[in-house]
Amino acid sequence: MAVYTQVSAEALTDFLARYDHGALVSAKGIAEGVENSNYMVDTTAGRYILTLYERRVAAGDLPFFMAMLDHVAADGNLVPRAFADRDGRVIQELEGRPACLIEFLSGVSVTRPTPSQAHAAAAAMGRMHHSLANFTSQRANTLGVDDWRPLLNRCGRSLDTIQAGLFDRVDTALAAVERDWPRDLAVSVIHADLFPDNVLMLDDRVTGLIDFYFACTDIRAYDLAVMHSAWAFDPAGEPLDPAVGRALVAGYDGAFGLSAAERAALPVLARGACLRFLLTRAWDWLNTPADALVTRKDPLAYARRLDWYERSDGFDAG
Ligand SMILES: Nc1ncnc2c1ncn2[C@@H]1O[C@H](COP(=O)(O)OP(=O)(O)O)[C@@H](O)[C@H]1O
Ligand SMILES: N[C@@H](CCOP(=O)(O)O)C(=O)O
């Protein structure tokens, strides 16, 4: 459960009084997620998401995320916008944290996607990339390829307390990724964390893309590689039906298109994605506060995915 900051009923009542979105009926901490504190808030006017930004989200980046959401929503993508209060303020402070009141979208996250669900989700990402082609704001990726080695060094040999030999394993894989990382592919603003838990669906239909707080400017095909690393495996990191991986590539290709160079780079981009999530999960595994209501994510599930990408010949086969 990700609730790092407890919100009192009194503070939430005062917070809601700034908006024209009804009075507090109930508020419940949301079990999913690891980065921010999220509450489902029911008011006399409807249902909302309350997010308090924690840990990796810098308050100064929030205007970029909100502008991105407004831009893609205005172009027809199903993403949640944050509401402005009566004074036009979107980003507030609550219990000492930056906070927003956000549109609630229906749908659920799948844990073992079918090929048709994977196809629909990747197509939704492709449509979002279309909309982002004329979004001119930029945000550097603070968890990009150049940040992985400093993060590895910050984790240090403590990695070996998670699994014997993990530091050397990651060090070797990272050296290969750094050597082979493509530097000439198209760059765009990307989501950078489009895991199944960040796509809301009803049956095979996408009802919402959420959690844009890692969005940044980076290699566009890296977004698909991140998605593949998250969707083509079960939560423990074991590969699903290979048709799921193929559906991701086909869904994206049909909606946006992949150049030959992007397609050829997918394996190294996916190995990079594995290292990125392995390292942040490992850091969190070693450093999450004992009193946080959060279920830490398993770094080794990403070591297993890395093993798979290293030994598999063809990305499309996955
Ligand atoms: N706009 C939304 N509409 C409906 N549910 C949402 C919305 N935003 C978040 N959620 C729910 O809250 C959970 C955690 O949100 P998420 O943004 O992934 O958290 P975190 O920022 O910690 O990664 C999601 O898995 C989803 O169940
Ligand atoms: N998707 C990342 C971390 C962020 O997870 P989220 O549930 O808060 O979106 C991971 O799985 O490591």
Automatic annotation (TrEMBL):
It catalyses: L-homoserine + ATP = O-phospho-L-homoserine + ADP + H(+). InterPro entries: Aminoglycoside_PTrfase, Homoserine_kinase_II, Kinase-like_dom_sf, Pseudomonas-type_ThrB. Keywords: Amino-acid biosynthesis, ATP-binding, Kinase, Nucleotide-binding, Threonine biosynthesis, Transferase. Pathway: Amino-acid biosynthesis; L-threonine biosynthesis; L-threonine from L-aspartate: step 4/5. The keyword NAD does not apply. The keyword Repeat does not apply. Residues 27-253 form the Aminoglycoside phosphotransferase domain. It holds the Pfam family APH. It comes from the Bacteria. One of its GO terms (molecular function) is kinase activity. Its EC number is 2.7.1.39. CDD domains: HomoserineK_II. Belongs to the pseudomonas-type ThrB family. This is Homoserine kinase. It comes from Sphingomonas cynarae. The lineage of its organism: Bacteria, Pseudomonadati, Pseudomonadota, Alphaproteobacteria, Sphingomonadales. The gene is thrB.
